[in-house]
Amino acid sequence: MKSPMAEGGIKAVAKALNLSASTVSRALNGVYGVNEDTRKLVRETASAMGYVPHLGAKQLVGKSSNMIGVFIPQFEFEASSGYVDMFSPLQLALQSHGKDALFFSIPFLHYPKDRLTECIGSRSLEGCLIFPAFSLSHPIMQEALALNLPCVNFENVVGPRCSSVVSDDREGGRLVGRKLAEKGHRVIGFLSGPPQIRICQERYEGFCEGLREAGIAHDPSLVAIGDFSGSSGADLAIRLRNEHPGMTALFCANDLMAMGAMMAFAKSGVSVPDQVSIVGYDGDHFTPYTSPPMTTIKHSREEVSSTAVKLLMELLEGNPGRGTSVPPQLIMRQSLIGLD
């Protein structure tokens, strides 16, 4: 059977559906003005007939590529990979708007100058989604703001053509503080990542607020500064336990440090949760399978993903950048118990 490309491509699809070629073209290219049912029918028919739009030809005639760049940090140190869970919902949300994603792994520590500009130019990207931990101070975000290309990030950076959606880290910390107070804990350690990182500050501030609601002031000597790695969680958990033998709970700023703490306590004969309850943060996929299963704050990754794409569509339509947040959820498991 001949392919529709050989028989005229868009014209063949139009003839099969008794539609004009211009309507089929607009439907396939996601252009405004086509009924959604018609758009869906055109795409399904084109797919069944084996028609694939020629991206290079579209770009040569000045049409949009419908491609969105997704920029992911490439770390040279141990770090959580929980953001991988967002790839699929982001792709699905983009495809629902006639867009597709190209994923780029970008060095976090040794960022190549003008790398974002090169990626955008070489692929004719219409916009970009930039993952944590690329914050305002990172060169890629500075470059994104200067380029004035529609851009959505997850680090609270907002500009004329730049929007942001974040998981509400202050609320997540507040949920932990409230729950630990409710369970009777008073001497509570906090393992932070680097304090200059926004999420560390917000998670700790929210945690302290949650405790204050119960009339508890957190002792700053119970704070230890890690680097988000499991090894730092292990070392600091033991140090805090030695310095504060009465510590009954430990809140870690990410799940990887919490897992390191659980491992270190197990090796040193400290029972979790009988002697020390542990709470993590992020809701990484491994948390139900630790021993015991880990209580954690889980990001609403699907809602964050769909919101990010919605914000990007707003920017592509010419609207100004704005910021929003999505509340996280406390997942109770066996690593946290109440005091008798």
From TrEMBL:
Gene Ontology MF terms in the entry: DNA-binding transcription factor activity; transcription cis-regulatory region binding
Superkingdom of origin: Bacteria
Annotated SMART domains: HTH_LACI
Keywords in alphabetical order: DNA-binding, Transcription, Transcription regulation
Pfam families, A to Z: LacI (PF00356), Peripla_BP_3 (PF13377)
Every HTH lacI-type domain range: 10-62
InterPro entries registered for this protein in UniProt: HTH_LacI, LacI/GalR-like_sensor, Lambda_DNA-bd_dom_sf, Peripla_BP_I
Protein name per UniProt: LacI family transcriptional regulator
